[in-house]
Design a protein that fits this description.
By secondary structure, this protein is an alpha+beta fold. The protein contains 14 helices and 22 strands. Strands 6, 9, 10, 11, 12, 13 and 14 form a seven-stranded antiparallel sheet that branches. The chain has a six-stranded antiparallel sheet with strand order 15-16-18-19-20-21. It starts with 5 loop residues before the first strand and ends in a 5-residue tail after the last strand.
Length: 525
């Protein structure tokens, strides 16, 4: 029997008929599929052609079918339908010729429709739907392939799936999205929906495992992470008062506040801290699960406001970009809701951040180390009475830096050390970075991952184009350093380069490289 494909123009009568044939009846929440089709119609995707692939063997739906649907009295088909989307126009007269002739960069991704009763959107790999590369950033992207008659098509995306309510609710869907991305990005094995549900309920079942209509507790989600061999860091909004103390300094509690206003202020500060923590991991290309009192979704990126006067870096982030199985992929979650229909980050009560197992130092601890070493360097004695500290020396050598030293912004993210070295090499080749400083940084011996903290200021960030935003320096932190130690490996700040011996904790030397800063900041991983 030959493999069947059907090519139809997107949005045509033929397309709508095919969608009805494979997606109806569609009970439950129809918003995700409606939003997906709307996004495909609009810029930047502008889909023009769809290839329907019926009788598709999807491993995730096959797993769901085996775990639950095959045992139902009602018969559910074991195969799904996959839709491939293209931004170019073609017909199906000669499918073999068409596939080899289609430009690969016109492939937008695919959507799997399950033959279930509820919420049929299965494994979905779709190119990001964002329009403004200077203000919208999706950091959690990996390359995925699909094949049509042996022809490979590749797209960079964050996996999306909708809960089916039987094998998984929103928590299982969020766990699946995170696990499937991490498997591709960091080489972990893939986990199927029923496996995730089994891991989640292995220690705290709470009754029967299926159907999974009631979702998971936060502990069960952490159990699932442990079962999959993923290193998870959990933060609760009521247990982070000792984290990110720079937020407390930026938003002090005034004594004149009433008890009610103090309670509101404390809730605000805690929410900002939770967002600040999540931002570091998302900026590192590591997805973060957001938990409200009744829902779970995945943070994968953020928007950016370059002109906002910010006390701390997180204030430049108006919204997180999320995969929300209840609404859509690549949606936005504003910090504060402007309409009743929006789910704001202020309602998030817990987050789960995923880090590689080799990383033992948290992002907030790494940033604290970076802040400390920069502040220590500014106060460091020079043994010159005319310029008693390095801060004074910087102000003399670079008068334009004078005002900036009192209002520094810190942005921290994790990178594989080989990627960091490769970026430095590219920057040198592009003549955007001092070659001698770059050589020193490239030749350092690093652990597998490093925390990088960029130091900048409002003046250097207030540019509409992302490539014009620069920073005064950066600190490289050993991602395996114990908390409350000096884990810095290198500091390049205000034209000075300091290198540190991780074995002894002592600085090897401080060197001066005039006009080696500012330099371009990290735009995307």
């Amino acid at each position: 029997m030959k493999k069947i494909f059907k090519v139809v123009p997107f949005g045509s009568a033929a397309f709508l008929k095919e969608i009805q044939n494979c997606a109806l009846p569609y009970r439950g929440n129809t918003q995700p599929i409606q939003e997906l089709l709307t996004a495909l119609q609009r810029s930047p995707l502008k889909c023009r052609t769809v290839i329907f692939e019926p009788e598709y063997v999807d491993k995730d739906y096959q797993d769901e079918h085996s775990a639950f649907y095959s045992r139902s009295f009602k018969k559910y088909g074991p195969r799904a339908t996959r839709l491939h989307f293209f931004s170019t126009k073609f017909t199906d007269k000669e499918i073999q010729t068409l596939v080899t002739a289609i430009p690969s960069d016109t492939y937008l991704g695919f959507l799997v429709l399950r033959p279930t009763d509820f919420q049929r959107v299965g494994r979905t790999i779709l190119r990001p739907t964002l329009k403004d590369p200077d203000r919208e950033f999706v950091h959690c992207l990996a390359a995925y392939e699909s094949h049509i008659l042996g022809q490979k098509f590749t797209v960079k995306a964050m996996p999306f799936i909708q809960q089916d309510t039987q094998v998984g609710a929103c928590a299982q869907a969020s766990l699946w999205m995170v696990a499937r991305y991490v498997s591709r990005r960091y080489g972990y094995r893939e986990y199927l929906p029923s496996e995730i549900n089994q891991f989640a309920k292995a220690h705290d079942g709470g009754g029967r495992k299926l159907p999974a209509e009631r979702g998971l507790t936060w502990k069960q989600m952490l159990d699932a992470m442990e079962g999959m061999g993923l290193y998870a860091l959990s933060y609760s909004i009521n247990q982070i008062d000792d984290c990110s103390t720079h937020i407390d300094a930026a938003f002090p509690e005034h004594r004149s506040l009433t008890a009610e206003k103090k309670t509101k202020h404390r809730a605000f500060v805690r929410s900002v801290k939770l967002a600040d923590i999540a931002y570091r991991y998302i900026e590192s290309g590591l997805p973060v699960i957001f938990g409200t009192h009744n829902h779970a979704l995945v943070g994968i990126g953020h928007t950016y406001n370059h002109i906002r006067s910010a006390k701390v870096a997180i204030q430049r982030i108006p919204a997180f970009i999320t995969h929300n199985d209840a609404s859509r992929p690549y949606g936005t979650m504003p910090m504060v809701a402007s309409t009743k229909s929006e789910l704001p980050f202020s309602e998030v009560e817990d987050i789960i951040a995923i880090v590689p197992v080799e990383v033992t130092l948290s992002g907030e601890a790494a940033e604290l180390m970076a802040r400390t070493v920069v502040e220590r360097f500014i106060r460091l004695k020079t043994h010159d009475s005319d310029v008693p500290t390095y801060g004074d020396l910087i102000r003399r050598l670079r008068p334009e830096f004078r005002k900036w030293l009192n209002k520094l912004e810190y942005r921290t993210f994790l990178m594989p050390s080989v990627d960091f070295q490769e970026k430095i090499r590219r920057d040198i080749q592009g003549r955007g970075f001092n070659a001698i400083v770059g050589k020193e940084l490239i030749e350092l011996d690093y652990p597998k991952f490093v925390w990088v903290t960029e130091i900048s200021t409002e003046v250097l960030l207030d540019f509409a184009k992302r490539q014009d935003r620069t920073c005064l320096g950066r600190v490289i932190i050993d991602s395996t350093a114990p908390t409350h130690t000096n884990g810095e490996m290198a500091v390049h700040f205000c034209d000075f380069l300091g290198l540190f011996d991780r074995q002894t904790g002592k600085g090897l030397r401080w060197s001066h490289f005039m006009e080696s800063t500012p330099f371009g900041h990290q735009i995307a991983l």
